[in-house]
Amino acid sequence: MTDGLSRSLAGQTWDVVIAGGGNAALCAAIEAAEAGARVLILEGAPHAYRGGNSRHTRNFRCMHHGDLGPLVETYDEEEFWQDLLRVTRGETDEELARHAIRNSAECLPWMQAHGVRFQPSLAGTLSLDRTNAFFLGGGKALVNAYYLTAQDLGVTVAYDAQVSHVGIEGGRATHVIASIGGQIISIAGRAFVLASGGFQADIDWLARAWGPSARNFLIRGTPYNRGVLLRDMVDQGALTVGDPTQCHAVAIDGRAPKFDGGIVTRLDCVPFSIVVNRDGQRFHDEGEDVWPKRYAIWGRLVAEQPDQVAYSIIDSRSIDLFMPSVYPPITADTIPDLAGKLGLPVDAVADTIAGFNAACREGQFRPQELDGLATSGLTPAKTNWARAIEQPPFYAYSLRPGVTFTYLGLKVDRHARATGPEGPYENIWSAGEMMAGSILGQGYLAGFGMTIGTVFGRIAGQEAAAHVA
Amino acid sequence: MSLDVTLQTDPGAISDDPVQEARRQIEICNACRYCEGYCSVFPAITRNKVFASGDITQLANLCHNCRGCYHACQYTAPHEFDLNLPKALGAARVDSWERFAWPSGLARLLQSHAAGLVVAIVLGIAAMILAIAALPGEGPGFYAWLGHGAMVAIFLPAFLLPLAAIAMGLRSYWHEVGGQAVTLHDLREAAISAGTMRNLSGGQGQGCNFEKGERYSNARRHVHQAIMYGFLLCFAATSVATVMHYLLDMPAPYGLFSLPKLLGIPGGLLLVAGCFGMIVLRGKADPGLGAPGRSGGENAFIWTLGLAGLTGLVLYALRGTALTGPLLALHLGLVLAFFLVTPYSKMAHGFYRMAALVREAQLRRLR
């Protein structure tokens, strides 16, 4: 960032200042610009990493009656709501949730009209072609399309621009303080949209919230969601929703990068394996259900193990049963050799596997369905796909918790307006992960983060533009 | 059936070997699959879990360098996985052509250095000047400068020998990728893919990301079509003329409304316009997303093709003037050079691309 650009950003009062540069921020920017507002996006990441966690997403959950874009049949409000109720176990706000669901239908054509392309659901995904519209090229292609649309609408974008503070006087925001390319500047505006995500990339914060074991967690998404602005708003008395100590974590390959490993670090072998911890002991039923319904539980389970690590072990009969993993398995011809390569206590692992094998019964192993092939007399039991691990070579993958997002968010109303200590702020709106805890208080529903971001991003942009019109 | 996981690579182990590096990147793509809708490469990737060298060669030649996947990729630099699939497949692709060519050093030379092709052109033109000066003309039109017999004596071997070299290369290719007996269905599918440049459509007709970065455009698809159809029309014109000469006893020169001219003139115009457009587009495109180190050779090839078309048109326009002799030497020299370097220049891509499309149609059929 040049001094000239910094001066030009600081030297005027913008109609709408948007903190963040992911899906929600972009939807807000496009709506506000189309309403005639002069819009500034302050994206904390450099250009190459713009888009927050949106760049890792791949689909959009959408209500519809009859075929819509790539979506088939019907997915109505009630079914959508029940799906959400199930995963959140009631930790949601029905009014906001139904508002997001109802608005999702008209979002899909809006997205297409603003450059987003969809494709039929991907190979190897659960049959989501009724509920989730997949982006051609994934979330980064969506982010690129929105930046191009915003650029064509005259939106100004500053990269490497981290907003650290919103200046608020009597319920009304006047400016933000941002560090742009290392320079601290104050940027004045008439309306503000805060869409800068959660705090999952701030490991210290995670460790304070969750406990010191969080230092061993991997962060699946952007390293730029450090919650700086969220913390600033909380410090200024903004009302929040969502459990401040909780994050959504899934079990991913333990060799994944600390940040930004994204989709490819996914590991799908657990149901066909046994999983042992650092001490060579099993700790949970690996065959409880199909993996997409269980991977989130395993994030938490692994987080509770010593050193927050676990190892999934299979034999040669199971190596071809799951989606390819990006990391090659650790391979050995005997269980003791495998345990040695993993650095696990050899005798404990051998005993665990021998005990498991002895508890396996005769029966038909059917990898595509819940086959009921369960162990007998073993604790913890394995209730499906319990086939002895006995045919070399043997394979292992390490598992660690991978954090997707945090639940703490700003409290908003159905107009996406954030709430201060004395009631709704006059001119501050919030969208995306930064307020998603209002609706998604627990669990996760595939593609719903993008639904919340798109619906409330658009609303925030419209409301902010109307406020300054 | 067990899987040979020893073929799998560490996603963080960036390699200097083109095949190994392409394998590393393809494995990452196969674990992601977000790009499935762009072109044939990604659905082809999902048919495997591990990739033998022949699989990599096939995928590399199936890739049309549309670059959609690069711009959509969440793992491009500065991410530690450092994905650049268009470049990695480009490198594996030229590596395969250079491996299959005979002699292989010549392919490497001509694809790496523009100068190689320039030398070939100069030699081609010099050879034609010498031929025109030394051999007697015999007959009307261009034959007054160089007789029909002499032309055939020079161009028949210059056409057939490179084709034989290409055939040997294709045989090696087919063996390496494990190709099977070809059916009419496979050929038809491949011809439709090439004829419509389906793999440059971006999957939905929006085009590719060649010259406008993240924005889609059909410009490259269109100029490539112009070059391809222009070339085929010129080739058809020559073929028709050969038939007319030998079977119908209708020797050249032909009038404007004869079949050779009705095919050849539009063909030449398309070829020239297409090559000009391609050079303009390549000037705007990011060289970092193409086959590394081959840009000079590729540009020289396009210039050769475009100039061959242009000199052919000028030659026809200025027929019967004093410039005919020099222009004839220039044109025939360019054509001669173009033919002779076919197995060793970017021209080879057309043959290997067709082979890859045939193999892809076959794999889809056998699935």
Percentage of residues in DSSP E strands of chain A: 15-25%
Please work out how many helical segments of chain B DSSP would assign: 14
Helix content of chain A: 25-40%
Kindly report the name of the CATH homologous superfamily of the largest domain in chain A.
Answer: FAD/NAD(P)-binding domain
What's the number of structural domains of chain B? Answer: 2
Relevant terms:
heterodimer; A: 469 residues; alpha/beta; FAD/NAD(P)-binding domain; Flavocytochrome C3, Chain A, domain 1; 2 domains; eight-stranded mixed β-sheet; six-stranded mixed β-sheet; 11 helices; 19 strands; B: 367 residues; mainly alpha; elongated
Structural features, described:
By secondary structure, chain A is an alpha/beta fold. Chain A folds into two domains: 3-240 and 407-468, FAD/NAD(P)-binding domain, CATH 3.50.50.60; 250-402, Succinate dehydrogenase/fumarate reductase flavoprotein, catalytic domain (Flavocytochrome C3, Chain A, domain 1, Alpha-Beta Complex). Chain A has eleven helices and 19 strands. In chain A, strands 1, 2, 6, 7, 8, 9, 18 and 19 form an eight-stranded mixed sheet that branches. In chain A, strands 10, 12, 13, 14, 15 and 16 form a six-stranded mixed sheet that branches. In chain A, strand 7 and strand 8 form a beta hairpin. In chain A, helix 2 (23-34) runs parallel beside helix 5 (139-152) and helix 3 crosses helix 4. Chain A starts with a helix and ends with a helix. The mean pLDDT of chain A is 95. Chain B has 367 residues and is mainly α. Chain B folds into two domains: 5-98, no CATH class; 102-366, no CATH class. Chain B contains 14 helices and no strands. Chain B has helices spanning 18-32, 41-45, 53-62, 68-72, 85-100, 104-112, 114-134, 148-176, 184-196, 219-246, 259-284, 295-317, 324-341, 348-366. The two termini of chain B are 17 Å apart. The mean pLDDT of chain B is 93. The chains are: A alpha/beta (469), B mainly alpha (367).
